[in-house]
Amino acid sequence: MKHLLKISDQFGTEFRTRSLVERLGASLVDGDEYMFDMSGIELISRSAADELYNITLSNHVELIRMTPFVQQMYDAVKLGRFQPRQHLSNDVEFIKCTDLQSLTTC
User: Fold this and answer.
1) What is the pLDDT of residues 9-34, one digit of tens each?
2) Measured between alpha carbons, how far is 105 from 23 in angstroms, rounded to an integer?
3) Which of 21, 42, 91, 98 is the most exposed place for a label (fewest CB within 10 A)?
4) What is the pTM of this model?
């Protein structure tokens, strides 16, 4: 059975945490197919987009009607999965901050 879910109706307009997306994933029924209508989602963090990508990999989920920002964040996560991490500089200076004041000053 294929289900159409308007995500903002059930989970709000902002996906700021991975745990919110995990709750969405936990609500899915194994073996069913889903279309997530992402219209109305205004903000998604990188970690939430990463978890959303995990859901699409492990379930039968199609994402539709993503805003340009959400699409861009989702695409960045997807692309990042297939590119090795590159550290272009090894001469990073580490600074020890022992309290909030020293961090603020830094």
Assistant:
1) 999 999 999 999 999 999 999 889 99
2) 39
3) 91
4) 0.74
